[in-house]
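Something for you to look into today, if you have time. Could you write out one complete protein record for me, on any chain you like? Leave the record below and I will have a look.
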Amino acid sequence: MTSEQKPLSRTRRNTLKLIGAAGVGLAGCMGSGDSGGNSGDSGGGSNGSESTTEGDDSSSGDYNLTLRLGHVGSKDHVTIGVFAERLADRLEEETDGRLSVEVYPAGQLGDAQGIIQGVQEGSAHLGLVDHAAVATVTGYEPYSVFNAPYTVEEPEQMLKATNPRENDMLAEMNEEAGEQVGLRAIGSIWLGKRHLTLDSEYTKPSDADGKIIRTTPADMWVSTIKGLGGKPESVAFGELPNALGTGTVNGQENPLENIVLGGLHKYQSHLMMTGHIAHAQVFIVNEETWQKLTPEDQEIFTTIADEESADTVERGEKQHQEALQTIKDEGSTEIITQDQMDMAAIKSSVEKQVNEDYSHLSEYLDRLREFE
């Protein structure tokens, strides 16, 4: 899942199509499910109309569109990478070539900020990023509630809550975001619950008093760390092992796969299974590009996205268990389960912090917490 992945050979196979979207030269960053968005310039973007090829007539579906999809996971990441590749293959086949997707993994179109800005401008057309990062980068804050801690906690339910065809609240947000910031959410994929690691035992918020805990610079994550009792600090994922090893930060939070991938548990005495964020990563699309599609092609697109999204749960949960077993087998990190923590105090503290920081989004938070 590193940013050093080589360009995909499959992304150059559509040689008969004219690609109008302008290229962007952006620096990659590490961290699927760890997107922040504090670096990476979005190169001179173009509008969504430049994704068209000869013979474009969006009103009748007489078009051939090549869409650029960016993410920061590796090509073969079991949720992000596999979802992107399967979507690309199926979309071209099921639209008889009207739509094709070029996948740029491992930060080839930039870090989270670069991808989001690219989708806004149309130099990229699709992206897999975090809801909170979209909110922070674009300024459209309502999207951030889908990364709020301890709201919807089960994977299937979270995917439903982050699907605009299942959740009227998100559909309403999409209409606003499309008009205001030039993109919308199609759906999401499952990455797993996020958990806390520290250089000491943690069972209640006061145990993190004075502890510097690394997080991404997205505002919702910052509020979450404060609610957990810690002091948030932004550190790039690639620099995190050194920061933990030198004591620059005392802890961090991530899905288990990222923790094992980065070897982060080796620098931490304790892993707390807080599960504070049920992490679904949002699939965004440039608004102008989306409006070019016929209703029939939009339906094909969303059907494929929904089916492939559902498949990420089984793969993601299997990877979660494998990563947990790896930590257990290595035996250097004590694992603290939820029944060993004061979860009522933790959830109360986190909810209080989020409610204070996001009082202007209280209606959205309440609706999400009540979502069924």
Notes: DSSP finds twelve helices and nine strands in the chain. Confidence is low (pLDDT under 50) at residues 1-33, 35-50. The two ends are 33 Å apart (CA to CA).
